[in-house]
Amino acid sequence: MKPGADTNFYIRLFIDYAVLTLAFLVTRQYIAAKGDVFFSGFNGLLLCISLCAWTAIGLFVHLYDDFRTRSFAFEFVAILKAVLLHASFFTFLFFYCFKFYPYPRTSTLLYNALAFTIITITKFVVKQSLLRLRAHGFNARNVLIVGAGEVGMSFYETILSNDHFGYRCVGFVDEETQTHLNGQYLGKVSDLGRILEEHSVDDVVVALPGGPSAMLEKIVALSEQEAKRVRIVADCYRFCTATASMNLFGNLPLLTIRTSPLDDMAHQRFKRIFEVCITVVLFITVFSWLFPIIALLIKLSSRGPVLYKQERWGMGNQKIICYKFRSMINDCDMVDAHGRYLQATRNDDRVTPIGRFLRKTSLDELPQFVNVLQGDMALVGPRPHPTPLHVEARSTVQHYMLRHQVKPGITGWAQVNGCRGETQQSGQMQKRVDLDLWYIENYSYWLDCLIIFQTFMNMIKGDKEAY
């Protein structure tokens, strides 16, 4: 680490030590019995063990990484991991090493809960304060940009428009003289050694997509000779999204341009268990009596089967059979003379009287809980589309097929944000797809709970776009 980074690390660690000590003393005061010595040698030993364990865990979960250009959410996750591991360590300590400890073991929970709360608040306040200071030029890192082409200028404009990141451009290095840079052009790559000696530079950012490997090797060698950190803007930067990630595949850096929490098998399994549990409970408590009532009403209102089976497309672009309560006249036309799918419209003549109510309250979708049990669908996810609409959209809507990287859902982020019903107008399907992709890239258990709750509320009040 550089001296400045070293100082920053020790300051952050010292603040955490102060918070942990405060939390430890508050917990000690809370569990103390009458006549206890407030702070004994044994308590001092426990505190020292705690601080040492926190340091090791913090380094392990990258709690002290530079979160300068990332949102607080990344730091919050690191804090949560550190506290959970710290709590687990202390629990093990008390149950296996310090069995004679005369106080309730629940004090471990109180200690870590206090530490988590205070550390989270402290780090959030510190981050917001640093953002304001960096916006005014304090705590800035000096960067030298190698390459004054499109990529280099794009990186430079990003620095200018995000001054809270705390980066300051020292100048540019390029093989061609750049007079339009108003004095910020410092020389050619062959001058890099001299430039680094004459200017205070923290990072060298290489923005030369497709440049010769020999030149890149020279830039890296000259920069490292001057003990400067080298950062390279990847050639494929324009394809990357906010969720792009880099991992090592052996010794090769592998860039994933679009990631999702659902790429993790643990998240997939948890989501599956959560949704199956909800489905089973609903079948036992609600569907066991609601399904027969709806089936009877459908039979009394029109001829035909109770259930409607429709071919749709699921995860991995595989066909699935989607179940619904029949809400239209049996054997009505579903495509026009040109083979285009006839979406349901307001006051559609094909919809039966009971079907109108079912569609308005979304009760016609309830049989899809069977699809959830079968594993074809999820409770929450992008809505699957009928084959004619799917075939049309995959060639006309940008990123449409990315929806099929996860299981389709009975409800979804697009639906609770008003994107349901017809998609005849230009841009309606694109907006729906954009919302679906946002859900995929930002999935969380709490987001699913929010979507389920909002769907339930929409069912009660009725959705104006459901017809």
UniProtKB/TrEMBL annotation:
Q: Which InterPro entries match?
A: Bact_transf, EPS_sugar_tfrase, NAD(P)-bd_dom_sf, Undecaprenyl-P_gluc_Ptfrase
A single Gene Ontology CC annotation of this entry is: membrane
The answer to whether the entry has keyword Transmembrane is yes
GO molecular function, a single term: undecaprenyl-phosphate glucose phosphotransferase activity
**Which membrane topology term applies here?**
Multi-pass membrane protein
Q: Does the keyword Transmembrane helix apply?
A: yes
Q: Which UniProt keywords apply?
A: Membrane, Transferase, Transmembrane, Transmembrane helix
The EC code for this enzyme is 2.7.8.31
User: TM spans, by residue?
Assistant: 9-31, 37-64, 76-96, 108-126, 273-298
- What superkingdom does the record give? Bacteria
Instruction: Tell me where in or outside the cell this protein is found.
Output: Membrane
Ranges for domain Bacterial sugar transferase? 271-460
Similarity section:
Belongs to the bacterial sugar transferase family.
- Which PANTHER family does this one have? COLANIC BIOSYNTHESIS UDP-GLUCOSE LIPID CARRIER TRANSFERASE, UNDECAPRENYL-PHOSPHATE N-ACETYLGALACTOSAMINYL 1-PHOSPHATE TRANSFERASE-RELATED
This chain belongs to the protein called: Undecaprenyl-phosphate glucose phosphotransferase
